[in-house]
Amino acid sequence: MAFLELYRDRLKHNYQYLSKLFEDRDIEWGVVTKLLCGNKDYIREVINLGAREIHDSRISNLKVVKSIDSKVQTVYIKPPAKRSIRNLIRYADVSFNSSYSTIKLLSEEAGRQNKKHKIIIMIEMGDLREGVLGENVIDFYERIFELPNIEVTGIGTNLNCLHGVMPSQDKLIQLSLYKQLIEAKFNRKIPWVSGGTSVTIPLLLKKMRPMGINHFRVGEILYFGLNLFTMKTVKGMRDDVFKLYTEIIELYEKPKVPMGELAENPSGEVMVINEEDYGKTSYRAIIDVGLLDISPEFLIPDDPKIEISGASSDMLVIDLGKTRRNYKVGDLVSFKLRYMGALSILNSDYIDKKII
């Protein structure tokens, strides 16, 4: 049976690397846990590392955080749906916002719950996901600060999440200038300029981060140690916090080319045959994960000689080549994961999750 392992010592290593990186630069930061899909054991591991600020895009996951430690500051990192306002105020201390009508409802509900709700105003910086357009920021803020029960704790932006627009010094300086404009016009302090995510870490390492960017929210680099500019592991970090183990459930030498008339498979794919493969065979193993659990493109075999041939809903076929290399039915085949692959596995009820 396939299972996922989280290695506690490797996670701690990456957390301590980032903690020192931010502490040395006087930057506040929080851990994004949306990858963990509400897994209580895994979230507890993050909190036990010392994280006092947790970011997530699911209110149910923030509820889990509060059940573990009510003193951890919880941040909801997408514009709230109006139908979720009551639970959001209950479980999120801070939320990302870009709509006045939603913030007004947050203010009203915070009053009913006798709370002060903090918000980060998201500003559009080119990736065209959430955010107020820059030319509207001053007018938007003017309407917001008149609302009771709402405290603007920061301005922020998202980059690289939709269209792949990368952070740059110019964009981050521009974000910092919005803070200065707001503070000068309204004589109110905004503590955070939340322009930092995993993709911004390389700028920090190169000393290219504008000093005004004083808040980071970090997920992917914590779990995978990945420099999203170079797509290589950051020197000094671990890329193997998670490991997926799958079991071989069949292993035979078979032809490399299918036999019969070809049509679309259930995934809508039609195989393109390499004519050089006619008459050739290889050892093909079936492992016990499939498209229901993960897309093959997000799997990185620990054995570099393994090739992934294809996948159906519940099974994945790997090509071992001309030799079985001591593999047999019942053996485990391990994989590192890319971010979206780990997200799929952690969201699957069919894959056991363990802590090592």
Protein architecture, described:
This protein is of the alpha/beta class and 356 residues long. The chain folds into two domains: 8-233, TIM Barrel (Alpha-Beta Barrel); 242-355, Beta Barrel (Lyase, Ornithine Decarboxylase, Chain A, domain 1). Helix content is 28%, strand content 26%. The protein contains ten helices and 18 strands. Strands 1, 12, 13, 14, 15, 16, 17 and 18 form an eight-stranded mixed beta sheet that branches. An eight-stranded parallel beta barrel has the order 2-3-4-5-6-7-8-9, surrounded by five helices. The protein has a two-stranded antiparallel sheet with strand order 10-11. Helix 6 packs across helix 7 (169-186). The model has no long low-confidence stretch (mean pLDDT 95). Its cofactor is pyridoxal 5'-phosphate.
What is shown here, in short?
28% of the residues lie in helices and 26% in strands. The chain has 356 residues and is an alpha/beta fold.
Please tell me the overall pLDDT: 95
- The CATH fourth-level homologous superfamily of the largest domain: Alanine racemase
General form: elongated
Structural class label:
alpha/beta
Q: Proportion of β residues?
A: 25-35%
**Count of distinct strands:** 18
Query: What low-confidence regions span 5 or more consecutive residues with pLDDT below 50?
Result: none
Number of helices: 10
Instruction: Please describe the biggest sheet, giving its number of strands, its sense, and whether it closes into a barrel.
Output: 8 strands, mixed
The CATH architecture assignment of the largest domain turns out to be Alpha-Beta Barrel
Please report the first level of CATH classification, the CATH class of the largest domain: Alpha Beta
- How many structurally independent domains? 2
How much helix, percentage-wise, in residues? 25-40%
Give the end-to-end Cα distance, rounded to a whole number of Å.
17 Å
